[in-house]
Amino acid sequence: MQIYTVFMTMNFSNFGQQFVAPTGISQLMDDLGDALKSETPVNLLGGGNPARIDKVNEVFLQSFKQMSIGDLDSSATDVMGNYSNPQGDSKFITALVDFFNRHYDWNLSSANIALTNGSQNAFFYLFNLFGGEFGEAQNTHNKSILLPLAPEYIGYSDVHIDGQHFVAIKPNIEEVCHEGESGFFKYRVDFEALENLPELAQGKIGAICCSRPTNPTGNVLTDNEMAHLSKIAKQHDIPLIIDNAYGAPFPNIIYPDVNLNWDDNTVLCFSLSKIGLPGVRTGIVIANPQVIHAISSMNAVVNLAPTRFGGAIARPLLENDQLKQLSDEVIQPFYAQKAKRAIELLKHEMGNTPMLIHKPEGAIFLWLWFKDLPISTTELYERLKAKSTLIVPSEYFFPGLDINDYPHAHECIRMSIAANDETLQKGIAVIGEVVRDLYAGGK
Q1: 17-55+326-439 has which fold?
Q2: Is domain 83-322 classified as CATH 3.40.640.10?
Q3: Per-residue pLDDT tens for 77-110?
Q4: Burial of 226 (0-12, 13-18, 19+ CB in 10 A)
Q5: Which of 97, 162, 223, 388 shows a CA-CA span of 20 to 30 A to 33?
Q6: Phi, psi angles (nearest 5°) of residue 130
Q7: Share above pLDDT 70 across residues of the chain, in percent, rounded to a whole number
């Protein structure tokens, strides 16, 4: 007997429609998953997965083994078999408090830290806490999140429950040298445009948010830029949210000598993903107790409690500073060497094409600018994908801006440097071939 399956057309709410519609982050994760299960080799230069570093993995595996044979209150069975409270695993939070107070003297307590199921989860909470519809008593019905330096992280774009709520500032672009070589540029915050933003004066901004180092570009905001942003946030009585997924003290994929600061008006977000543990989905939020209480309450509703597994692996490595040592001595040099090698390959493959590379100051990507590219980088993405090479086009990285009349937003790509050397070489060769052909007038 033949069985027929009938698929109904489902009527989703506006909330549901927002999440089932195509998005940049869903395309990125779908392509990552498809590449990993593809029978044909794919030059995977598009995802945000960190590299597999043997020395780092050995330490994590040893920590897991110790947990597996540990005492009852810290054993793997306990971690897997019991919820934490909604704020997160108390032992890991205590270790984080001690670690940050030891290295930064911030005078934190456990009331200043909450855990989430990855930093993407944290930003879903934070952007909906500080952006969206507000009541009459708060002077405006709608507030946006201000991104002071576009381009910004692709994953921010679609997390608001009730639509898009971003305002972004175009960067000042400065051509610079890197290690004595030309062919580089750097984004800087346009503070004149920022301070004259009508939405700030009208009370329509709920928070300022930046990533440092920036995903996708590897840009690192200077200490002066960070101090200026903090001052503006305090003047307008709104928090400054800092996405520190790639920054100090872990994984410390950051090359300029800059400082990490925190105060009661700052929300600092960390992750265990980029140290090499993306699968354990562990985000860390440091903020004032009112924000932490709100995140804990949201955890209870959305997740019951955040996962404990990542914290159980990382806790002893925080307590003995091994995680900081790994970040300083293994992870950071690894990616610095990767960036150097990728730049060498790009310079070789691109020839005389008008390519500029954003000055590599951190993170696990290079941001490439193809001036006056004959096609959009969304079209370039499709051409590279047809040749089994994945990157991410720039159009997805400008939430809060109308990019229809902003050519620069259509001329860049994000390229991961986390792949093995063979994949990096093959992928860059494909990018060079396709881009050279485009500038030469190829169809």
Answers
A1: Aspartate Aminotransferase, domain 1 (3.90.1150)
A2: yes
A3: 777 778 789 999 999 999 999 999 999 999 999 9
A4: buried
A5: 162
A6: -110, -5
A7: 91
